[in-house]
Amino acid sequence: MGNVHLGVNLEYVRHADKSFEWGVEKAAELGYEYVEPWVHLGRELMSEAGYFATISMWEDPIRIKRLCEKAGVKISGLSAHTPLCKPDISGNYLKQAIRFAAECGALVVNTDEGPKPSWTTEDEDFVLMRYVLAEAAAFAENRGILIGLEPHQQYSKTPEGLDRIYNLVDSPAIGINFDTGNSYLCGKDPLVWLEHVKDRLVHLHAKDISIQQSEDERGKVTGTPAGCACGEGVVDWKKVVAICRKVPRDIVFSVECGTIEQAERSIKHLRQFV
Fold it and tell me: Number of folded domains in the chain?
């Protein structure tokens, strides 16, 4: 317990026009122990053609598991972000992601509350989220999967807001997928916030924020798709690792960056502390 492992979110090949298979093999080549796939429902042209790294949950999860095993990496979690405030979208999607995770060998399914409907009140949104999370938690408990709630949208942009979502459903399957970059862009101190959630932490998005992005966007946005290379921005990774050493379970740092070169520089920097 308290061990930190290094992984990478497959969005690191997003701009390289590469397939999921290519991204997995490259992650292993760079030295990552884990990968975090993006998942979607149905079929998607660019992924089918091998130009994008998301995978369909209509795929055979056992094939995905074996593909990763062959490359020498494990799956830390699934990037299954879906708007919890919209049960018509998120209900079946999240449950399918949990099923898929259980078969492909992922440990965690990561999500957030997503953009809210334009016509609902805040109180209504929390009722809707409670419904989705209660249904999903039952699926997750039966399969030994954890749900990682991430600070990313309108309600989870503060520690109090993320806590409120977390406390909607009392389930051992629900935890926190902390995002260092999103928390910083929300205007908060990521180290203080991470310390606050460390006992509930199940996964971590290792996202750094460049000085330029910080100056342009901090306090104006609630998140960003990808950051800069770890070690080239504002996040103190030595202190992040130190906090995670006190977590009651092993934690995977899933690097969220925008290019292959940033992924390579990120693992070189993080290895100093892990």
Answer: 1
